[in-house]
């Protein structure tokens, strides 16, 4: 049996399709199912510190436009600089009102995990000022979300 991967190319030599041996295809499908079944705790964790706030979480969704989930027991600065977007200030008030975060001294503490629309929104919430989430959140190896491939437009 031929175990080689073969490519179908157009008249210009550009790869248009691939022909895989069935056992390799089945292995790839199996890996894809395992990745989809990963629980949040099994996802790569990222952290961000600003002043006294320490937050942990993970990106969720497509690489080019991920959401970001901040984990329970993470903390955020309770002060807002004047330049903080009104939407972040309103979100802080809403999360306080519903109990997702509680005041703890000069910090806010997450009582449960919360999914933000973007890593930047999560970083702004935690810091209390404007931040680029792709640059703020880093993994245990020291790589930022941007360095890990998030935020890049997919090349289709």
Q: Order of strands across the widest beta sheet?
A: 9-5-4-3-10
Gap from first CA to last CA: 33 Å
The portion of residues forming beta strands comes to 25-35%
SSE ordering: EEHEEEEHEEEHHE
Count of beta strands: 10
- Rg for CA atoms: 21 Å
- Proportion of residues in helical segments: 25-40%
The largest β sheet comes out as: 5 strands, antiparallel
Shape: elongated
Runs in which pLDDT lies below 50 for 5 or more consecutive residues are: none
- Mean pLDDT figure: 87
Which structural class is indicated by helix and strand composition? alpha+beta
Whole-number tally of structural domains: 2
Tally of DSSP helical segments: 4
Protein name: DUF4357 domain-containing protein
InterPro entries: DUF4357
Pfam family, one: DUF4357
Textual characterization of the structure:
The protein is built from 4 helices and 10 strands, in the order ββαββββαβββααβ. With 156 residues, it is of the alpha+beta class. The protein has a 5-stranded antiparallel β-sheet. It has helices spanning 22-36, 86-98, 119-127, 133-136; strands spanning 6-9, 15-19, 46-50, 53-60, 67-70, 75-77, 101-104, 107-110, 114-116, 138-139. 26% of the residues lie in helices and 27% in strands. It is elongated and about 65 Å long. It folds into 2 domains: 6-37; 41-139, no CATH class. It comes from Motilimonas pumila. InterPro entries: DUF4357 (IPR025579).
Index terms:
156 residues, alpha+beta, five-stranded antiparallel sheet, DUF4357 domain-containing protein
């Amino acid at each position: 049996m031929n175990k080689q991967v073969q490519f179908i190319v157009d008249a210009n030599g550009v790869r248009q399709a691939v022909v895989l041996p069935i056992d390799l295809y089945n292995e790839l499908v199996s890996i894809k199912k395992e990745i989809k079944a990963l629980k949040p705790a099994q996802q790569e964790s990222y952290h961000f510190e600003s002043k006294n706030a320490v937050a942990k979480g993970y990106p969720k969704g497509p690489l080019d436009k991920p959401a970001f989930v901040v984990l329970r027991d993470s903390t955020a600065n309770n002060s807002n600089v004047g330049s903080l977007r009104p939407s972040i200030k309103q979100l802080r008030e809403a999360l306080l009102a519903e109990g997702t975060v509680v005041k703890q001294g000069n910090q806010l503490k997450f009582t449960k995990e919360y999914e933000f629309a973007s890593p930047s929104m999560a970083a702004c919430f935690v810091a209390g000022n404007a931040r680029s989430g792709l640059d703020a959140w880093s993994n245990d190896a020291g790589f930022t979300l941007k360095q890990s491939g998030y935020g890049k437009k997919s090349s289709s």
